[in-house]
């Protein structure tokens, strides 16, 4: 499986492999038809339920999975969790009609990389797929607003994990919270990409998180993203 760094350096001609997991056939047909017209994106498989989604993920090793949330049997939350256990570098983009907290937060906690509504335009979905392949999360504006309201809580007086971060690591964390890739962070801070990767690894370790989404959520929750 390609690492995130390898995908960031993809040749222009190399397609992003996408798996569709949705229990509505017409949704899958529409998505496949639209995405097949997009340069650099290849739909490698379609699944109508979670179990088939996991099976096809094992078969095709997609770069990105477009995931429905409400499906019979195994729902999108559990399917996301199981796919990411098998392929941690895969990026799951939730594509759903639901905005309620009971579905939004569990799938984010399960490791979903981006969250879009099915009212999104075709170009927005394609752009989100390309962004995910670059390591950038995309949240539909209503979703982002809900997350900000949830996680922007008053800071407690007890010691926080981010107090262990150096000044440079804090700079990197703020840019991670903005959804920027390692290359974009390197450009913004005028440092090498290897240095960025070193800082990101240290940030994950000090904050006790596993990925960029969790680090971004931590930054927003602690009120660090906009400081």
UniProtKB/TrEMBL annotation:
Residues of the Response regulatory domain: 17-133
Q: Positions modified as 4-aspartylphosphate?
A: 68
Residues of the HTH luxR-type domain:
158-223
- Keywords for the protein's UniProt record, in alphabetical order: DNA-binding, Phosphoprotein, Transcription, Transcription regulation
Q: Tell me the Pfam families matching this sequence.
A: GerE, Response_reg
GO:BP terms for this protein? phosphorelay signal transduction system; regulation of DNA-templated transcription
Report the GO molecular function annotations: DNA binding
Note the InterPro entries from the entry.
CheY-like_superfamily, NreC/VraR/RcsB-like_REC, Sig_transdc_resp-reg_C-effctor, Sig_transdc_resp-reg_receiver, Tscrpt_reg_LuxR_C, WalR-like
From what superkingdom does this record's organism come?
Answer: Bacteria
Name-wise, this protein is Two component transcriptional regulator, LuxR family
Origin species: Paenibacillus curdlanolyticus YK9
